[in-house]
Amino acid sequence: MQGLMMNRHLLVSDLLEHAAAQHGQQSIISRSVEGPIVRHTYAQIAQRSRQLAQALLALGAGPGDRIGTLAWNTHRHFEAYYAISGIGAITHTINPRLFPEQLRYIINHADDRILLVDLSFIPLLRQLLPQLPGVEHIILMTDYEQQSLQAPDWLCYETLLAEQSPNFSWPRFSDEQASALCYTSGTTGNPKGVLYSHYSTLLHAMAACRADALGITPESCVLPVVPMFHVCAWGVPYAAAMMGSRLILPGAALDGASLTELIQQEQADLLLGVPTVWMGLLRHLHENHIRLQHVKRVVVGGSAAPLSMIREFDENHSAFVVHAWGMTELSPLGTVNLPTPEIMRLPPLERYQHQLKQGRPVFGIELAIFDDKNHRLAHDGKTFGHLRVRGPWVAERYFRHEDLSAFEHGWFDTGDIATLDEAGYMQIVDRAKDVIKSGGEWISSIDLENAAMSYSGLREACVIGIPHPRWDERPLLLVVPGHEDLDLAALRDHLAAHVARWWLPDSIVVVAELPHTATGKLSKLQLRNQYHDYYLKPEQNRP
Ligand code: AMP
To answer: Same structural domain for residues 47 and 171?
Structure first.
C-alpha cells in the first residue's frame, strides 16, 4: 500500500549513537572493580563500544552468537551490552550469585562462545571452566597491568580495545533479531532463558522512560543498584541512553557506606533496586545520622516493598518510593505504582498503605486475574487469583525449552497470586508457591511479613507455610532482630492488632540471618525444607 511509513527498524546500537550524538558530553560515572571512580562521556563510551564490537568480530563472533558477561554494573559492562547486541550477537548476562552447577548449566545451555569477566569472578570461572567445553575466549574486563598479573592466559579488555579503530558502522538487520538473554533464577528445576529482541528492548526502554512509569528524563541522574546481570538492570542501561541521562554505576560495592558516598557525591536523584539493598542503605543512613540530599524517587521492585521502608524514605529523606513489579519474562517492567492526585492528598499513613500495591500496568502491558478453572475474576481489590499478562515485551516461550505450560491461551501465567482494584492497581498477594493453605483458606505470607515489618524492632521477617497435623499448613514467622532485646510478646500483640486471628503465626523463630536467592528474594523453598517438621514435632522438641 502506498503512503505508509518508512520501514526502518530501530536497533540497540541506535540508542548508543543517539546518546553520543545528542548528549555526547553527558557523564557515565562508574565505580570500577579495581576501586577508583571513573568518568566518561557518552561520546567516549560509544567510541569504546565500537572498538569492542570490532574486537569481538575479530575473535570470530557473529550474528546470533551468545556472548556471556559475568560482571558488575560498570562502564565496561555497559559498553559490552552495546557492542555485543550491536553486531547482532546476543548479550547473555549471567548472574554470578547462582550456584556453580546452575552457572555451568546456563553457560552450556546458552552455548556461550566468548565470556567477558570482571576481576572478582576469576576464581569462580576457573572453577567452572573445565566443564565449559563451548567457551573459546575469555576477556578479562580490566587493563593490561591487572590482566597480565591476574590471568595472563586470558585476553585483556583494554588491550583489545586499543587495537581497534574508533570508527565503525553498526550493521543493520531486522529488529526481530535477539539482542539479549537472561535466565530466571527459578527455585525449582534448571534456570530458564528469556530471549529479548531489539524490538522488545527498544519498546520497553520507551515505556520505562515515560512519566507514568520510571520517569527518566535528560535531567535525571540515575543510579541502578539493581544488577546489570538481573533482567538488564530493569532496562536502565537502554533507557538512560535513550534520554541521555546522567548514569551512575555502582560497581561491586553495594554496601550502605559505598552507596551513600556515591549517591551524595554524584547527586543521584533516581535510585532503583531490590528491598534488601535499601535495607542496608537505610541502616547505614540511620546509624550515621545521614540525610539523603538529592534523591527524589526510589524505585523498589523484585520483592514487596515493606511499609516501614516506604515511610522511612519519605519521612527521613523526602524520597518517594515508587513500588514496581516485574519479571525476567517481562523485560521486566509490568506495573508501576504512581498514585493518583486523590491518593496523594490522603494522610501519609493511608498513602503509604496504597504504595504497598505494586501499581498499574504501563501502556503496552495487559493484566488479568483468573481462577483455577480459567475464569476471569473481578477487579474489586479483594478477589485474588492467578495473575496473567500479555504484551509486546512479554516472552512467548523460554529459550530452547519445550515446556509451554506457562504460556497458554495467549497469556503468560506469572506464578503470582494478585488482586486488581477498580482503579487498575494490582497488589501481589503471594507467589502461588508461597501462599499458605490453612484449613482450606489462603493466608498471604507477604501480608504477614508486612505486618511484622511494621513492628519497629525487626531487621527482616519471613513467613512460610509448613505442614501442620490439623490445618494442613500453618504460618511460621522467622525474624532477624534489629537490636538485642527484641520483645516477642510485644511483636505477637502487634501482629494480633494488624491481621485476622486465624492468620497469626503459631510460632515465631528468632534467627541471625535469613537466606536469599541470587536475585535478593527470601529463599522460602530452603526455609520450608529446613522447617518442614517444625509443627509435626511436639512443642517441647522444637528447636
Ligand atoms: P524475577 O524474574 O527474578 O525478577 O522475579 C519475578 C518475581 O519477583 C515476580 O513474579 C514476583 O513474584 C516477584 N516480584 C517482583 N517485583 C515484586 C514486587 N514489587 N512485590 C512483590 N513481588 C515482586
So the answer is: yes
Residue 84, C-alpha cell as written in the block: 555485543
Q: Which domain holds residue 164?
A: 8-23+39-212
The active-site residue, picked from 159, 261, 296, 442, is: 442
Query: Rounded to a whole number, what is the largest CA-CA distance in the chain?
Result: 82
C-alpha cell at 11: 536497533
Q: What is the residue with the minimal CA distance to atom 20 of ligand 1?
A: 304
Overall average pLDDT of the 30-34 stretch: 97
- pLDDT tens digits along 371-409: 999 999 999 999 999 999 999 999 999 999 999 999 999
Test site for ligand 1: of 428, 445, 523, most ligand atoms within 8 A of the Cβ: 428
- How many domains, the chain? 3
Which of 185, 325, 522 is the pocket-test mutation for ligand 1 (most atoms within 8 Å of CB)? Answer: 325
- Read off the pLDDT of residues 434-460 as tens digits, 9 standing for 90 and up: 999 998 888 999 999 999 999 988 999
- Strands 270-273 and 333-336 turn out to be unpaired
- DSSP-derived secondary structure for 14-62: HHHHHHHHHSTT-EEEEE-TTSSEEEEEHHHHHHHHHHHHHHHHHTT--
| The predicted structure's pLDDT at residue 440 | 85
Rounded CA separation 44/292 (Å): 30
Q: Is the CB of 304 under 6 A from ligand 1?
A: yes
Separation of CA 6 and ligand 1 centre (Å): 38
337 lines ligand 1 (CB under 6 A): no
Q: How far is the CA of 301 from the centre of ligand 1 (A)?
A: 7
| Residue 535 and residue 390 in one domain | no
Residue 491 is inside which H or E element, if any? helix 488-498
CATH number reported for the structural domain that contains residue 112 in this entry: 3.40.50.12780
* 508 inside domain: yes
Residue nearest ligand 1's atom 8 by CA:
302
User: Mean pLDDT throughout 85-110?
Assistant: 96
Q: Output the domain CATH number for residue 400.
A: 2.30.38.10
Task: For residue 442, indicate whether it is catalytic.
Answer: yes
Same-domain pairing of 441 and 397: no
pLDDT in tens, 323-353: 999 999 999 999 999 999 999 999 999 999 9
pLDDT of residue 384: 93
* Distance from residue 428's CA to the centre of ligand 1 (Å): 9
Does one domain contain both 537 and 399? no
193 within ligand 1 shell (Cβ under 6 A):
no
